[in-house]
Amino acid sequence: LNLGLRWEVELPRYVEGDKLNAFDPFAINPVSGTPGVVTFAGRDGVPRTSFNANWKNFGPRAGFAWNSPLLGGLVIRGGAGILYGPNISNTVTTAATLGYSDNLSLVTPSAETSYVLKLANGFPAYTRPSPGTAGFGAVKVGERPTTAVTYFNRDRPSPVSYQYNLDLQKELPHNLLLEAGYLGNVSHHLTANDLTLNQLLPSQLAPGNTQVLRPFPQFSNVTQLNPAIGNSTYHAVFFKAERRFSNGLAFLAHYTFSKFLDDVAAGDEFGDPGSYMDQYNRRLDKARAGSDVPQHLTFTGLYSLPFGIQLGVYGNFQSGQVFSVFDAANSTNGFPAGTLRPDLVANPNSEGAWQIQRYFNTAAFAHPSNFRFGSSPRSVLRGPGSANVDFSLAKQLAIGDKLKAEFRAVTFNTLNIANFEIPGHSLGNADFGVIGTARPARIVELVVRILF
User: Fold this and answer.
1) What Rg, from alpha-carbon coordinates, does the chain have?
2) Residues 37/99, Cβ–Cβ less than 8 Å
3) Closest CA to 411 of 312, 318, 316
4) Are 25 and 64 contacting, i.e. CB atoms less than 8 angstroms apart?
5) 70: CB partners within 8 A, 6+ apart
6) Cα 248–Cα 179–Cα 389 angle in degrees, nearest 5
7) Other Cβ atoms within 10 Å of 225 Cβ, number
8) How far apart are CA 283 and CA 177, in angstroms?
9) Residue 110: what pLDDT?
10) pTM for this one?
11) What pLDDT does 324 receive?
12) Where on the phi/psi map is residue 379: left (φ > 0), alpha (ψ -120 to 50), or beta?
């Protein structure tokens, strides 16, 4: 039995010289008379740090292993724990530096019907405002804004993950181990992609100059960096068979059946689910995660022949990547929070699809009418599955007393299986529904290594 308690505190970041901006979304701006004021670290009572430290992150842990004679050699293991993640993604670098860098942001008064500037006329005059200026970067409502605000939410919770597992192990003769288990992970407050807070309400979508209707019309945009708004759930069962090296043979086979849901994309995804569309309707964002792989089988084996040759095999079979269908056009005129998705008007997996030139029913998606968000959810489709088998052959030869030469031949994708990538999935593009790429075909590699 293993019991523990971890206390974890992440001290918030700060910038040498306090060259860091913040944002108060509730204070009235003296320039525009609307909510939203840029503030600065270390000035007027604003803390030096980009967010507040969380001092209550206590993570209990519990684990057990039971190997009783009553179980006939069956070992039962299990555990659970609460874990906390970093408050800020490692991908954030020089962000929230308003007033200490040059950044001119212009916005068109009407999307797709007017332009911001003509290059022939040159760029508009711009003077960087000084930090601490009242109403920093703001303009009067109705004037063209020039400043985009990015900031960290000061009272952000830490990402938290509730993890638990149960595992059964049975050792059989001939060094064979069988294992089956369950894994669960429920997470909240995950750091997500940057989120704009300056989107119009769906009820406000209309033609004309909608900039004046935005929550912060004095700025071209207001973006929260790495907002802690992500949620995910993961459940999986797995089966494993392992033979430890004995009499020249070793192998390992592992099969997982799982389901992974979330409502924001991670920094590195297997598929292409995207994240936000309408910040006021996050329900459409909850779907299969980009790394959702419902079925996954891997195996590896090694066999040493009596005359010094080693044969190896590796296999990987898994479900395809999920992806969202995006809309190449933007007719909302509402400054959406992310890439738009079209309307879902029919079954995208209807008969007649699943071909290279028409992988899914492209007629199932339609451009929404003007000034409206589409109804298609995230991760609405899944790409082709993949199968791969690699083989290797190796032999070592002694060269004198101190040198050895190793000769190795490896074939990747030995069976030359065509593993297709996901199709084009932006409505309005020429490749919509068409699979145009695939993973590499068979590759043969010959290697000679000198060991000394």
Assistant:
1) 28
2) no
3) 312
4) no
5) none
6) 55
7) 20
8) 44
9) 64
10) 0.87
11) 96
12) left
